[in-house]
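BUG: 3D viewer hangs when loading the predicted structure for this chain

Environment: internal workstation, default settings.
Expected: structure renders.
Actual: progress bar stalls at 90%.

Input used:
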Amino acid sequence: MAHLGDYIYEGAGADGRVRKHDGGEINTLADYRRRYAQYKSDVSLQRAHAQCPWVVTWDDHEVDNNYAGEIAQDAQAREAFLARRAVAYQAWYEHQPVRVPRPRAWADLAIHRSVSWGALARFWVLDTRQFRSNQACGDGRKAFCAESLEASRTVLGESQETWLNNGLSASRAAWQVLAQQIMVAPYVTIGADGARVSMDQWAGYPSAQRRLVESLHERAPGRGVVLTGDMHSSWVNDLRVDFSRPESAAVATEFVGTSMTSGGNGADGFTGTAAETMRANNPHLAWHNAPRGYVLCDVTPGEWRSAYRTVEYVDTPGATIRTAAQFVVQAGRPGVQPV
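Structure tokens produced before the viewer hung:
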């Protein structure tokens, strides 16, 4: 099982959620340990861990919402935030099933790594938080500003980006799989100031986004798949080197999985005029919906099949699970097809 971040939430507990955690905003090592302990007391989560091995990475909420490298979301001073980040990383390491070297200092916990599934697949587990440039244009959903277009801006950091590129070049596994946090494909909406994207996702870092997709195209042609979290909804995207040219060929496919309980019961995807507008603005988008669930992947050397498994509700036990949609990618033929 791949869990792609936001295992815990750092904010205060709130009413009206499927599960409410205790306490306010967490900052200390004791706080983070207590939050993990409460989450791990959940019987359903215990059973999920017992059922199969997990490959995990973190996103922002394991530390602080939308943090970027050494920069907190709010006005917290750098030194204070780095101390908080270090204890959050330590608690994550203590409570998650990971085999990464323990660092000399918790402020520098490197978690990007590769995991092999024989000759079938190589999973590249990424860290899109610790080394990134700060979100441009003041964060949020914005039209591109000059800052966002700077070529030097990064999501992975130079060292991790080089590690990934070299690894993709060297690996001979049938499938090269990026297990990572934030959506690679843009989700474009149109405002008075033009096309808007999330400055926290890869689309807010267009030079880094292009480098990533180019790397998949050049180093793993016809065998690249991206598994993504973060969105609390489900998306299937064809990845293109230049998303402004929808007529260009897809070079890889991105499967975005929804949350298990965060966001409550969820909802169906856009319909009617809203759906038409969404697809017109995002021609790389093959499918979207927003009930809770998971993505079940059936992989052979010749094809990758993803089934989106959803339930109608999660606020009470006993919901029937169904397959909302299925998609296939043929090895050597980039581009996703519905089944």
